[in-house]
């Protein structure tokens, strides 16, 4: 085992990529009020989205995408796979209707044959590689094989023992399909399509995987996951899964097939059993994912080898069955309004980027007043927010309640931290909004204000009313929560004020 690992590590990898990494989006259509293809393309253009994946080959959508330059991956739906995998003529007809009829006006660059066939439609697995070959043959006959790749997305669940990545391997029961599949991808210089969902890995880990590790949040070196066999450090679940796939291919002696992630994302809303499906977590994950992919850093096993990724997905799909989270993976609603505004400073104008700089952090509706109080105490204490504007007689004193005051403190901290992902959470009682919470003479940090001015948000020093220890006074609202708030507030501040 040790010798095999050493040989794998010493193998000179020939995995390569022809271009810089890109971020694309999946376009699902399970909406009760699905926008028209023209509206979809208008949104893509407005958000500078240059790569999309369709779950079918809808004719109206392909026509709408014509002459836009947007790179399109079309798909053979699972229900059509058996017919195509058993008939070269059926495959050729599919390509003629759904590809040849649209290129070059529509920039089709890939065909995804089925989706997660091995795990969702195993009875079709025996004809999967035949379907790939028949589709590819039709492209060769039309001289399109050089510009259109053919592959098939797989669920990461086909990888067993995914951590440490160096010990990962594909489910051996699928070797009769996986080996010829990898041979096909290698011979056609295509890529391995993989769906990567750290959200589900986190949910299924029963607390073993830290939330920060799933969300790409920075970890101290002693908290990073280390592969004991390779000594490679992993700072996020995404990289670990991708490298597990690379090692799994290596054990089957395939070391030159790049990976494209065809689906990845985080739900913005869930039911009571999905407490981490929140707007802030979805924003944090997708914002950090985009940065991570576009910096072309690759993975610990293959640094510098890009892992282009399609975000799941463009729209919330209210017609999808299942738990609440299944309906809430989208970046936009059916009216093309952003579900949340991604924090993409430095990543260019892409998707629902905060190009107007007008996002704010506010107290979440219905949040527990005790939790708000504790978070307010932290913000005005250890968080070093200037809360002088909340003192009696100051512009933001009224309304004098914990919701209004915590909203001010949350937003001041959020703006001070340059709206970094994860800085508008406060144990789940805060959320991001595009509505300016300023009111009357109380102009919130981040707002241009009526006179183009706003309170100072850059100082990290305690305000002038602080005690000599550098800790702010604690504000309380409502006798019912007083005792709990005192205990929580004192505990929070004592960690900083000792």
Topology:
Elements: H1 2-10, E1 23-27, H2 37-46, E2 51-54, H3 59-64, E3 71-76, H4 81-85, H5 88-100, E4 108-113, H6 117-120, H7 128-141, E5 149-151, E6 154-155, E7 159-160, E8 169-170, H8 175-187, E9 192-195, H9 198-204, H10 211-214, E10 225-226, E11 233-234, H11 237-251, E12 259-264, H12 279-294, E13 309-311, E14 360-363, H13 369-380, H14 402-416, E15 430-433, H15 482-497
Parallel strand pairs: 1-2, 1-13, 2-3, 3-4, 4-5, 6-9, 9-12, 12-13
Antiparallel strand pairs: 7-8, 10-11, 14-15
Helix pairs in contact: 5-7, 7-8, 13-14, 13-15
Query: What is the subunit arrangement here?
Result: single chain
Spans with pLDDT under 50 lasting ≥5 residues? Answer: 1-14, 345-349, 352-356, 450-498
Fraction in beta strands: 5-15%
Q: Quick one: biggest sheet?
A: 9 strands, parallel
Strand order of the largest sheet: 5-4-3-2-1-13-12-9-6
Radius of gyration: 26 Å
- Secondary structure class reads alpha/beta
| Straight-line distance between termini | 52 Å
How do the SSEs run, as a string of H and E?
HEHEHEHHEHHEEEEHEHHEEHEHEEHHEH
Which CATH top level class of the largest domain fits? Answer: Alpha Beta
- When the domains are counted, the total is 2
Fourth-tier CATH superfamily name of the largest domain: Glycosidases
Mean pLDDT: 83
Number of strands: 15
State the CATH architecture of the largest domain: Alpha-Beta Barrel
CATH fold annotation of the largest domain: TIM Barrel
Number of helices: 15
Shape: globular
Helix content: 25-40%
Describe this structure as you would to a colleague.
With 498 residues, the protein is an alpha/beta fold. The protein has 2 domains: 17-327, Alpha-Beta Barrel (TIM Barrel); 360-497, no CATH class. It is 32% helix and 11% strand. It has 15 helices and 15 strands. Strands 5-4-3-2-1-13-12-9-6 form a 9-stranded parallel β-sheet. Strands 7-8 form a two-stranded antiparallel ribbon. A two-stranded antiparallel sheet has the order 10-11. Helix 2 links the parallel strand 1 and strand 2 (51-54). The radius of gyration is 26 Å and the shape is globular. The relative contact order is 0.10. Residues 1-14, 345-349, 352-356 and 450-498 have low confidence and may be disordered. This is glucan endo-1,3-beta-D-glucosidase. Belongs to the glycosyl hydrolase 17 family. One of its GO terms (molecular function) is glucan endo-1,3-beta-D-glucosidase activity. The chain crosses the membrane at residues 474-497.
């Amino acid at each position: 085992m040790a010798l095999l690992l050493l040989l794998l590590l010493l193998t000179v990898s020939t995995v390569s990529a022809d271009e810089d990494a890109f971020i694309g989006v999946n376009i699902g259509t399970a909406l009760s009020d699905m926008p028209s293809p023209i509206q979809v393309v208008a949104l893509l253009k407005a958000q500078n989205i240059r790569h999309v994946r369709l779950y079918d080959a809808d004719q109206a959508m392909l026509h709408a995408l014509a002459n836009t330059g947007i790179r399109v991956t079309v798909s053979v739906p699972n229900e059509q796979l058996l017919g195509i995998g058993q008939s070269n003529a059926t495959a050729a007809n599919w390509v003629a209707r759904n590809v040849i009829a649209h290129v070059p006006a529509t920039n089709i660059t890939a065909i995804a044959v089925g989706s997660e066939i091995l795990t969702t439609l195993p009875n079709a697995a025996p004809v999967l590689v035949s379907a790939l070959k028949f589709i590819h043959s039709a492209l060769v006959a039309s001289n399109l094989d050089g510009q259109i790749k053919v592959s098939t997305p797989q669920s990461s669940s086909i990888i067993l023992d995914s951590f440490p990545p160096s010990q990962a391997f594909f489910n051996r029961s699928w070797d009769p399909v996986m080996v010829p599949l990898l041979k096909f991808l290698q011979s056609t210089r295509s890529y391995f399509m993989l769906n990567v969902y750290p959200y589900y890995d986190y949910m299924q880990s029963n607390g073993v995987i830290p939330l920060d590790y799933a969300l790409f949040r920075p970890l101290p070196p002693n908290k990073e996951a280390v592969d004991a066999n390779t000594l490679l450090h992993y700072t996020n679940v995404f990289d670990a899964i991708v490298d597990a796939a690379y090692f799994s291919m290596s054990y089957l002696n395939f070391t030159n097939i790049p990976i494209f992630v065809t689906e990845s994302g985080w739900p913005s809303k869930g039911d009571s059993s999905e407490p981490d499906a929140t707007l802030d977590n979805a924003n944090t994950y997708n914002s950090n994912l985009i940065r991570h992919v576009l910096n072309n850093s690759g993975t610990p096993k293959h640094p510098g080898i890009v892992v282009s990724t399609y975000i799941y997905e463009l729209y919330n799909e209210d017609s999808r069955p299942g738990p609440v989270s299944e309906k809430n993976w989208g970046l936009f609603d059916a009216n093309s309004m952003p579900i949340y505004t991604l924090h993409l400073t430095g990543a260019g104008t892409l998707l629902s980027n905060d190009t107007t700089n007008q996002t704010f952090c506010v107290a979440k509706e219905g949040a527990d007043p005790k939790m708000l109080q504790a978070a307010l105490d932290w913000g005005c204490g250890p968080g070093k927010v200037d809360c002088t504007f909340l003192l009696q007689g100051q512009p933001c004193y009224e309304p004098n309640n914990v919701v209004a005051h915590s909203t001010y403190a949350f937003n001041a901290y959020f703006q001070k931290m340059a709206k970094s992902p994860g800085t508008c959470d406060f144990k789940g009682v805060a959320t991001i909004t595009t509505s300016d919470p300023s009111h009357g003479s109380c102009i919130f940090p981040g707002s241009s204000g009526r006179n183009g001015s706003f309170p100072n948000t850059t100082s990290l020093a305690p305000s002038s009313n602080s005690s000599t220890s550098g800790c702010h006074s604690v504000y309380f609202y409502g006798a019912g929560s007083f005792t709990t708030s005192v205990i929580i507030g004192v505990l929070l501040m004592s960690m900083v004020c000792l």
